[in-house]
Each structure stands twice: as structure tokens, then as C-alpha cells.
Amino acid sequence: MGRATKVVLAYSGGVDTSVCIPYLKQEWGVEEVITLAADLGQGDELEPVREKALKSGATESLVVDATESFVKDYAFAALQANALYENRYPLSTALARPLIAKLLVDAAQKYGADAVAHGCTGKGNDQVRFDVSIAALNPKLKVLAPAREWGMSREETIAYGERFGIPSPVKKSSPYSIDRNLLGRSIEAGPLEDPKHEPLEEIYLMTKAIADTPDEPEYVEIGFEKGIPTQLNGRATAPVELIKQLNTMAGNHGVGRIDMVENRLVGIKSREIYETPALLVLIQAHRDLESLTLTADVTHYKRGIEETYSQMIYNGLWYSPLKGALDAFVQKTQERVSGTVKIKLFKGNATIVGRWSDQSLYTPDLATYGADDKFDHKAAEGFIYVWGLPTRIWSQQNH
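The line above is the sequence of Argininosuccinate synthase; the predicted C-alpha cells follow.
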């Protein structure tokens, strides 16, 4: 591990990250622990979190509002790439990790720390995302992960904290492990560890049960400029506000629930529940607008890139050279992706019912089967002859 004297700790206010403070000082000889809590729109009041860090022994307790950067620099970049891990999960939690890593590295530089720390365990994806991102941003900085090494059970961790004045959780802790930010919620553990167990309705906060959704559909028009959502129902809407409004609208109609068994980077399968109303609707709308504005070859090639891109985010490689190269490709494709997509929200479904764009490659004169048809039907015969020539030659040789 190596000795560290001043450490910046990613801090949430929970049991593990609180216990990390005295543990780093008592067991690992750290002199100063500076905590950093990132406000990513999770809706919590962070002042009590800041105060708890100081009571737990932190020298300084930082709270950084990074919500706007989270949406503009991370979520929207992933949206332009239609990033869905295993074609289902829009990476709402994973996207927060490279940003928090950047905040840790920036704070370490500002305060002259020689190490950063996090409270991740050894079984999850987040430890990889933090460690690799930090190494990419500053390879000289040590990364400490006390919870990965201390080998204490939850009960032992709470007891250790109590020895240093950290109060144990007063209410019976939920059996679920929940992470949330502006983009959504992830829920795991407890009864959900049995993949055949149907999730109880109590775990959902952002999305209504279908039985409780409105009996009339709601339509929403999302306007994009170069692949970035900028308008809701014809009104210019700032990034954070756009996500908030769309979360509310889509969640009200039961849109945005995901129940999946995903493949973690560390080699195990994990049953995860996600609520990501806005992000799922935006990816669906953005992908549809691309079908109108991108050529066939770019569209098809980009699909393969999107899978790689989503895997890289999930696997903690946001700051890697390949991700940077793919960003350049994605940005080039987005130059024409401007227009509007109309979506019908109803009973758990977000259905695209219309799309239009000044950059549209859809040509009515060529697409129509009516009297206005301008397509040269005579050209089809020669085209088919040349197109099918390799197949015909192969067939002649094998029959």
C-alpha cells in the first residue's frame, strides 16, 4: 500500500465511508483525511453529510455540486453514443464514477494530498472504475481502499465505528443496496439476490406501477441539436432541468424500469434493478433521430461502436485512449443529428410516433408507392444482377 500522510476520501455519509476515516488514521497511519461528497442531483441534503464527516474525524469536509457537469460532460456524451450496457442498462450509476474520480484527483492536487481513497468492496464494479480512472488522471497518486482490505462484517464495521464516536444506524437498515443520482436509481441485494424473486413495489421511487399510471397517454416532443437534447415540447430547456422534467413525465407513466442479470467486470453475475426514466427515453429518441439523419453505412457501423463504448464505460475505461478515439468518431457522426422526436408515454411504454428534421435523408418522392414515385424501377434489374453475381457464381460451382 505505501504510507500516505494526507488523503482525500470519496464520502457518502454511510457506514463504510464514515468508518474509513478513523480506520485510515488508526490502522494505516494517515495524518489527515479530507472527505469529498459529490452532489450529482441525488436529492439528499448534503450539509448533514458534511457535518458527519467532521464528527467522524475528517480534517476538512468538501461538498461539490457537479450535477451540471455530470449531465453535460458525461451523460450527454454517453447519450450521443446510445450507450446501453448489454443493450439494456443506460449506465446511470457507472457514469458517475469517472466524474467522482476526477473530483478526487482535482482535490488531491489542490490540497497537496499524496493519496485518494474510496469505500468500495472487492466484489463490485465501482472499485475498478475508481482505481483505473484515478490512475489515468494521475498515475503518481496512491489509491487506498480500506473496505476492500479490512475484512470486517457489517456488524463489525458498525462496532468499529462506534469505538470512534460514529453512531450506528438508528433505524433498521434496508436489506437493499441503493445508489442514486439525477440519472436514476440502482437497487440490489436483499431479496433481489434471488433472480426468480419478483421485486416488491416498495423499492421503486421514480416510476409508478402500471396500475397507478394515468389512463390517458401523454405526448412529449424532444428537440435535439447535434445529438444533444435542448428542447422539451418546443421550449429551450437547460440540461439538468430537461433530465428532471423528463424523469417526472416518463416515471409518471411507469416508463424506465429495468430488471436484469448483468455480467460484472469482476466475473460474477449480479441481479440489478434500475430506474432510469429520462435516460431510456432520450436514448430511444436519439437513436430514432439518427435513423432519419445518418446514412445507412454510418448507422450500421456506429452500432458496433456503441456496444464497445458502453462496455468501456461499464468497465471503468472512461479516460482510456480508445474511449477518446471513439469520442472523436461519435462527435463527427452527430453533426447532422438535429431535429425533433415525438414520443407517446402510456402504461409503461415510450412509443415513438413521429420524427422530423431539416437534416432528414428521408425522401418522400423516392419512398412513396403513389403517383409521385420518382424511383427508377428499371434500374433495379441491373443492380440486382451485379449485387447477386457472387452468390450466383458460388451456386453454379456447388450445384
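Note on the example: The chain has three domains: 6-74+90-163, 177-294+337-356, 373-397. The chain has 14 helices and 14 strands.
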